[in-house]
Amino acid sequence: MDATTTPEPLGPRDALNTAAMGARVRALRQRGGLSTAELAIKAGVSAGLISQIERGLGNPSLKILERLRVALDVSLMTLIEGAPAPGAEPGFVRRRARRPHLSVGPLGIDKAILSPPGTEGLRFMLVTMPPGSRIDEMIMGEGQKAGLVLRGVVRLAVARDESVLGEGDSFQFRADQPHVLSNDGDRPAEFVWIMAGAEYATPP
User: Fold this and answer.
1) Are 190 and 151 in contact (CB under 8 A)?
2) pTM
């Protein structure tokens, strides 16, 4: 990037439509013949949280959404976006303007889903972490996780090891290990986050 180029602003973009997603959760739950309490038990969350999500309240984390989509036996994209509209893009394309965004935590960590709706077994996102933020509620399971730091500095702890990563640095590790990401700096950090494995496949 040359000196005259203005970088894309960091921070939250278009927020996830929680009301529409809540309506989809309710419809999927009812289609499966589940009560709110039964879905809560299957997903390992509280019935109160299910009620909040269905009413479009709160801001569920990606981990909660993963639990819900497994319990409802649908893909994450179906839960977040619904069925693709007729004449939409091919299933292998995700346009920049159509990225779903999740805002996580009190500091508003932004997770933009880059994976096209039709992908299987792999998910990747563009994550923006404000200064002082931390991601420790991670999905763990079989497979691999990887990433590339685009801007700023992040601290990555995997099991007992830890490393500080700057712009251009990349990483990869087994997804079944405990891991935490932190931005201890004074400016936002942005990185591509990749998850691959059976945990991220669409149910048959």
Assistant:
1) yes
2) 0.77
* Rounded CA Rg of the chain: 17
Alpha carbons within 13 angstroms on the beta-carbon side of residue 146 total: 8
Q: How far is 121 from 102, CA to CA, in rounded Å?
A: 20
Give CA angle at 184 (173, 186), nearest 5°. Answer: 135
Q: Each residue of 87-143: pLDDT tens digit?
A: 677 878 888 988 888 888 788 899 998 988 766 788 899 999 999 999 987 878 889
Neighbouring residues of 20: CB distance < 8 A, sequence distance ≥ 6? 56, 82
Secondary structure (3-state) at 46: coil
Tallying the residues shown for the chain, one arrives at 204
> Exposed/middle/buried for 156, CB within 10 Å: 0-12, 13-18, 19+?
buried
